[in-house]
Amino acid sequence: MDATPRPQQTLDVLELVLADAHYGLPLDRVVEVVPRVTITRLPELAPPVLGFLVHRGAAVAVVDMRQRLGYPARPPSLADHVVIARARTRTGPGTLMSVALVVDRALGVRQVDPAHLQLPPESASFVAGLTPLGSGLLLVSDLDAVLSLEQERAVAAALRAHEEQA
């Protein structure tokens, strides 16, 4: 029998800043971080969905995470980052869709000890867990809760309609 201790499992997250709060997105669902780019507005989509951008040839819905999480709006900035990530859809079980999340800043990868994760309040629909971070908290996000079922359907319909017009 091998008595060698196993290394502590950690959760790798991409640490983001929104307003003064720090969030973590599971790194295994992050595709890429890009600078703020031109977003094509789709008037039939309501906030927090801003429209779409083209990422590697595919149209991807853009979500303003400040609006999604109830933070005060601020004008777009070239310093903003856009995180391309994969979220599970509610319309197709096991299906992943790309989403582009506009955030104030992506800071880098952080390792989180799952043993220190605490359950969030029930009202925090986008937060899967909380963990201490210096003098504050890191809110580990639930990417699958970025869009509601209604928003997901509206985005799919708007993107289909746009592609048909193109």
Notable traits:
single chain, 166 residues, mainly beta, OB fold (Dihydrolipoamide Acetyltransferase, E2P), six-stranded mixed sheet, five-stranded mixed sheet, 11 strands, 44% strand, globular
Indicate the multimeric state.
single chain
What structural category do the secondary elements indicate?
mainly beta
CATH architecture: Beta Barrel
SS summary, helix count: 2
H-E string:
EEEEEEHEEEEEH
Predict the CATH topology: OB fold (Dihydrolipoamide Acetyltransferase, E2P)
Whole-number tally of structural domains: 1
**How are strands sequenced across the largest beta sheet?**
3-7-8-6-5-4
Q: How would the global form be characterised?
A: globular
Helical amount: 10-25%
Percent in strands: 35-45%
Q: Between the first and last Cα atoms, what is the distance in angstroms?
A: 63 Å
* Number of distinct beta strands: 11
What profile does the largest beta sheet have?
Answer: 6 strands, mixed
